[in-house]
Amino acid sequence: MGSNPTSCTFNQFSYSFPKMNDLNLYEQDAALNHVEKLEFKRLAATKGEEKAINYITKELKKGEIASILESFKWCKSTTLLMKGAFIFLLIYLNLYQIILLFTDWIWLILILDALLALIIYFGTKILLDMSRIYYIGKEKESKNIIAKIKGEQTENEDLTNPVVILSAHYDSIS
Questions:
Q1: Structure pTM?
Q2: Do 55 and 89 share a structural domain?
Q3: If DSSP codes are grouped into helix, strand and coil, which group holds residue 37?
Q4: Does residue 88 share a domain with residue 68?
């Protein structure tokens, strides 16, 4: 019907893709081999992640592709904040109900409401302050692998600094 599913045009450039039966069987087996080699739990900041880093950097060296490791620190602040907020609300609501049972203590509700308002105000102010990084919980260290492959330009191409960025996560549960 006029359209070829193995090619496309994007921003004045035409791209052709090989058909599956034209691909080299060795390349298909190599891709499957990589998937099988990385088929294990590799959560961030664990031995599994370290094993994945070693495998990927070894394969990049085999392909003569320069790579660097970039370390960064992180922690599960959001999860801990959500748990803390949930526990605080449970305690707050239970205190509220207990105070409502004793009519002589109703004035304490005003104090609890003022305390809740202050916590929400300052908590929001601190959380939305992007000038500081707050780590709540155990700080962990992980690494990114950055590899650069220089592109090749043919004589007929007039490309002004084209860049292709491929990104993937290697820290996950398989």
A1: 0.54
A2: no
A3: helix
A4: no
87 shares a domain with 60: no
How many domains, in total, are found in the chain? 2
pLDDT tens, residue by residue, 69-81 = 998 887 766 667 7
Domain containing 92 equals 77-127
Which residue intervals of the chain are DSSP H helices? Answer: 25-37, 47-62, 77-101, 107-127
Q: How far apart are CA 94 and CA 100, in angstroms?
A: 10
> Is the torsion defined by CA of 132, 137, 138, 143 positive or negative?
negative
Distance CA 58, CA 79 (A): 34
**For 123-168, how does the pLDDT look when each residue is reduced to its tens digit (9 = 90+)?**
778 767 666 666 666 778 888 899 887 776 667 666 666 677 777 7
The phi and psi torsions of 157 (rounded to 5 degrees) equal -90, 135
